[in-house]
């Protein structure tokens, strides 16, 4: 059974695209002193601007940054200026995915004869270096097109996937992807600290999405409003409800910690770092969420 698209491409862009307008940047992406203190717990500049971008995107438009997503220059410049770092530091901020079925993945190399005997079982196909060299100018043109904002990476992949036969550029991007994935798998296997940090970050993101999914249970995750304004209000209401639950949980957790400290009970900070305010098992989510219109009184 075919699924009907609820939102058009223009409506999705209006709801979920990152802002570039100065008024929206000032309204949604102005960091508080508390935000800056939290962000500066990260030591490297690239990590500071990276966590700041994720924090701002969660607040508006209410989603996580997608892998490979191009950040608007206006957004990165504005956030970097508040942190006192360079916008170019973002180039060193890497996305660390959690690879499914990592044990079944294979490492791809340029020269199979140079692989040690002990690693033969982990080695897959040879990387087609000639194909990368042959189509490298086209790859550079694609990079320039995406960086200039003329085309989103998702649109490029859709155009390549729509062709009946595999295009040379698609084959080249696949070979480059094998190189990147091989380098990442090697780094992942050697760096246990990175494994721990990636798992913590992704678990937080999944918990955040699970909370929003629980709040949308009444309509099974669908946005059925036909007007753009109604869709915007629906998404804004969902983000507001999520923020309210997170704030209430954080406040109650803070009160519980304060009471324990006053009673002379130990609350190690290293244990508090593993407590999340994203739980909702103690909250009754069924019912109606009403937003009364409160008249604004002029001073």
Would you give an account of this structure?
With 299 residues, the protein is mainly alpha-helical. It folds into three domains: 95 residues, no CATH class; 91 residues, no CATH class; 35 residues. Helices cover 54% and strands 2% of the residues. The protein has twelve helices and two strands, in the order αααααββααααααα. It has a two-stranded parallel sheet. α4 packs across α5. The model has no long low-confidence stretch (mean pLDDT 80).
Task: Quickly list its features.
2 strands, 12 helices, two-stranded parallel sheet, 2% strand, 299 residues
* Beta-strand content estimate: under 5%
Average residue-wise pLDDT: 80
Largest sheet: 2 strands, parallel
> What is the β-strand count?
2
The structural domain count equals 3
Classify the helix fraction into a percent range. 40-55%
Unreliable residue stretches: none
């Amino acid at each position: 059974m075919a699924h009907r698209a609820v939102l058009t491409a223009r409506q999705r862009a209006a709801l979920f695209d990152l802002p570039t307008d100065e008024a929206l940047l000032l309204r949604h992406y102005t960091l508080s002193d508390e935000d800056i203190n939290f962000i500066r717990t990260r030591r490297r500049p690239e990590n500071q601007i990276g966590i700041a971008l994720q924090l701002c995107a969660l607040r508006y438009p209410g989603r996580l940054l997608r892998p490979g997503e191009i950040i608007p220059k206006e957004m990165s410049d504005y956030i970097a200026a508040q942190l006192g770092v360079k916008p170019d530091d973002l180039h060193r901020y890497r996305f660390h995915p959690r690879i499914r079925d990592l044990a079944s993945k294979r490492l791809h190399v340029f020269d199979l004869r140079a692989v040690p005997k002990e690693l033969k079982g982990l080695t897959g196909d040879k990387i087609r270096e000639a194909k990368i060299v042959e189509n490298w100018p086209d790859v550079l043109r694609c990079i320039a097109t995406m960086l200039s904002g003329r085309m989103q990476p998702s649109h490029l992949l859709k155009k390549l996937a729509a062709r009946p036969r595999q295009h040379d550029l698609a084959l080249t991007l696949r070979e480059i992807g094998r190189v990147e994935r091989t380098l990442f798998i090697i780094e992942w296997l050697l760096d246990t600290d990175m494994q721990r940090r990636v798992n913590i970050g992704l678990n937080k993101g999944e918990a955040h999405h699970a909370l929003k999914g629980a709040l949308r249970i009444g309509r099974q995750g669908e946005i059925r409003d036909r007007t753009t304004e109604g869709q915007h209000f629906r998404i804004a209401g969902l983000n507001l409800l999520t923020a309210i639950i997170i704030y209430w949980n954080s406040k109650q957790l803070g009160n519980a910690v304060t009471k324990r400290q006053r009673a002379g009970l130990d609350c190690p900070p290293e244990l508090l770092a593993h407590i999340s305010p994203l739980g909702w098992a103690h909250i009754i989510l069924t019912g109606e969420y009403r937003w009364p219109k409160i008249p604004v009184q002029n001073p």
